[in-house]
Amino acid sequence: MLQADPILQTKELSVYYGDNRVVTEVTLDVLRNRITAIIGPSGSGKSTLLRCFNRMNDLIPTFRLSGEVLFEGRNLYTPTVDPTEIRYQIGMVFQRPNPFPKSIFDNVAFGPRINGYNGNLADLVERSLQRAAIWDEVKDRLKSSALSLSGGQQQRLCIARTLAIEPTVILMDEPCSSLDPIATLAIEELMRELSEDYSIVIVTHNMQQAARVSNYTAFLMAEGDRVGQLIEFGESRQIFTNPQDERTEAYITGRFG
Question: Does domain 6-252 have CATH number 3.10.20.90?
Answer without folding.
Answer: no
